[in-house]
Amino acid sequence: MLYIISTPIGNIEDITYRAIRILQECNVIFCEDTRRTGKLLSHYKIKNKLDTYNDINKKRRTPIIVELLKNGNDIALVSDSGTPGINDPGFYLIRECINQNIDIVPIPGPSSILAGLVCSGLPTDKFTFLGFIPKTSGKRLKLIESLKEKDETIILLESPHRIQKTLKAMSETIPEKNIVIARELTKKFEEFIRGSVLEVYEKIKDRTIKGEIVLVVN
Question: For position 9, which CATH number holds?
């Protein structure tokens, strides 16, 4: 079986007993970065074979992993943090395993997207995840313009290096929308910045923002 295992997004204690057991019992663990996953395994005293599966080698590694699965091996797939398949190459392998009729088992756990959403205070009954905000100004503005007509809650990801530019563009386009910046989730400096787009931009425009950021807009 292919196990899709969620791992901590910051706080190393955020992992399920089931995830630890599967990581101990499976034949091979495929991860984006063996150094990062190695620290997690070391913390929980898990000694197992690690190999890489990332955007660079996914096309080359996918048939190898499929062959291992067909030969009766249990494989664990993890990302650097959170749930594999969300904005990472896990989707490529999962899709191929489905095409090959290989069983896929989710081991749910941490997700920055859901953590940011449920603590935002914005409506959770209907929401859309749009991934990372485009890097180029034209595409970024086009996405922001599209938010004018959205009545559901929108979840986005943004880099700390671009957050001021993004909020400035939002403040000029959708200033009255409600927004929450959720950053450094589950870590020591976890923070939620809430208010209208214009209010939040005024709060952060002169700050140095660090860490991974989830934006929740409604």
Answer: 3.40.1010.10
